[in-house]
Write a structure and sequence with these properties.
alpha+beta, Beta-Lactamase, 2 domains, five-stranded antiparallel beta sheet, elongated
């Protein structure tokens, strides 16, 4: 992923999806080109065609902030895509260095355990599950029953057949997962464990390969997710993501339901079942 050409690939992908009509360009009925031409992007951004071609070809890798903002406007990038564009230009010539595996602070692990009726987990930017409580394990998979390498939400989504049954809207989950990993790859271009994860998913999942090639980036901070659980059936939960201060890339994700709705009752049932199962394990 540490590739100087990635900036050009991202620009090409955004150029292909930008509508000439929305950009205010006159379009001939005979036009067959999808998206914008290179010269049109250069015109809209106020730069020379030659320089823009060099950017797409990877021969110009350090454009100024002014040029990047002009390109972001020309290509109608949203805030997440704009940030990713800037990330792709922060190339460093320092020697590659693998990031150490993330660790959850004991206080956070204890906090998750105390959230007995709220599914919650702690993940890093690679989507590794660093810690999770019992209800979160019921929603996703048993974190303690798998190896540290397998304790990853992206691997679960694309490599475990159970994920397509567990997530009612699996397609949306898949797109969001790939978008988050693509964003992380731009921010951490020399992260070897992240590159290994992406490589494995690319080799083993056709769905991942197709989505990854689109170069879409996403960052979800809150929303709703629909689960299908064998104990309670379908339930829709709100999720909120909280960045952990002082822990680069770590995020606490908590799920909740409408207090008076059936989904809250389903969570209560899951919590009671979990407590009963734990009690039975302790007594044996």
């Amino acid at each position: 992923m540490d590739d100087r050409r990635e900036l050009g690939r991202f620009l090409r992908s955004r150029r292909a999806r930008t509508s000439p009509e929305r950009a205010g360009l006159h379009v001939s009925p005979r036009r067959r080109v999808q998206g914008l031409r290179r010269e049109e992007v250069a015109q809209l951004a106020g730069i020379s065609v030659e320089y823009y071609v060099r950017l797409e070809q990877g021969r110009a890798t350090r454009p100024s902030g002014q040029v990047l903002e002009a390109l972001a406007r020309a290509l109608e990038l949203d805030e997440t895509e704009r940030a990713h564009l800037h990330d792709l230009t922060r190339y460093t010539t320092a020697a590659p260095r693998s990031a150490r595996p993330g660790r959850a602070r004991p206080e956070l692990v204890q906090l998750l355990a105390l959230m007995e009726r709220t599914p919650a987990l702690l993940i890093d930017y690679r989507m590794d599950v660093l810690a999770g409580n019992r209800l979160a394990a019921m929603l996703f998979f048993d974190f303690d029953a798998v190896s540290a390498r397998e304790r990853n939400l992206a691997r679960f989504a694309f490599l475990d057949p159970a994920a397509r049954e567990r997530f009612v809207d699996w397609g949306d989950v898949a797109r969001a997962t790939v978008g988050a990993l693509r964003l992380a790859a731009g921010r951490h271009p020399r992260d070897e464990p992240l590159a290994t994860l992406v490589g494995e998913l690319t080799l083993r999942s056709e769905a991942f390969r197709e989505l990854w090639s689109g170069r879409d980036v996403r960052e979800r901070t809150h929303g709703r997710k629909r689960f299908r659980h064998p104990l309670v059936g379908e339930l829709t939960l709100r999720y909120e993501n909280f960045d952990v201060p002082g822990a680069s890339g770590q995020r606490l994700v908590a799920f909740s339901a409408d207090p008076a709705g059936p989904d809250q009752a389903a969570l209560e049932l899951m919590a009671m079942w979990r407590a009963s199962a734990d009690s039975a394990d302790t007594s044996t």
